[in-house]
């Protein structure tokens, strides 16, 4: 992989996936793509013609030099099953990579575990959720006072729903971070982190995912959702998965939206991806801050 050139006209992005090899293969078998490949597909849909590289920093100790990281226009961190509070070689490598991203001064964006990795790398805390998971739909996310004025959430209504599936959450943001959005289940739903020379925008939910990908993830964790008390039996989970999958094919269906209790912010791809679009639109400002 050659180092990108900063003076190019085509944006060049780096996607860091923290799934381990067996987890990537399991996701490919289930959804057709690893988390990094999903991010790449989303970014290419939003900005045709871009250049994208995918790395897996948790896999080995072959760290990318900071100078090479600085050549990218942005870094994206994906979701994954990684628990960043586990003291394992894989977690340590992933956190070291994120600290290098901050040191390089390249703007970064992350969702779900991507947010948690940035938080932990900058000195914050992540924990297993003490009561239950947040799965399929993160309900009634609301911007904080800081969030209402922040460009990451530009265009969002006062309250919105988003695709989500996570059993870990941010307990404490690091110094230099700003809480941008919360809901009743998870206090940190969106945040900005400024650390070293870098700035990170992130969300706990999944603006990059298609609804079918969320449906497949929920179906694969049906037993966990029953154990967490979110459903009484797996058939109940599968019934909701079927509605979500149908909404993927018919996002304008009033009947399907009503059955899930969602609106266009959740159902429509363009609106669901709003945070990524806002990040991409503000990259020049973030790079030159």
Your description of this structure?
With 289 residues, this protein is an alpha/beta fold. The protein contains 14 helices and eleven strands. The protein has helices at residues 21-31, 35-46, 66-69, 89-104, 113-121, 145-148, 211-220, 222-227, 234-249, 254-260, 264-267, 269-272, 274-281, 283-287, and strands at 12-16, 51-55, 74-77, 108-111, 125-128, 134-143, 159-166, 168-172, 177-182, 190-195, 198-203. The strands form two sheets. The protein has a nine-stranded mixed sheet with strand order 2-1-3-4-11-10-9-6-7, sandwiched between helices. Helix 4 (89-104) links the parallel strand 3 (74-77) and strand 4. The longest helix has 16 residues, at 89-104. The two termini are 28 Å apart.
Q: What characteristics describe this protein?
A:
alpha/beta, 22% strand, 289 residues, 14 helices
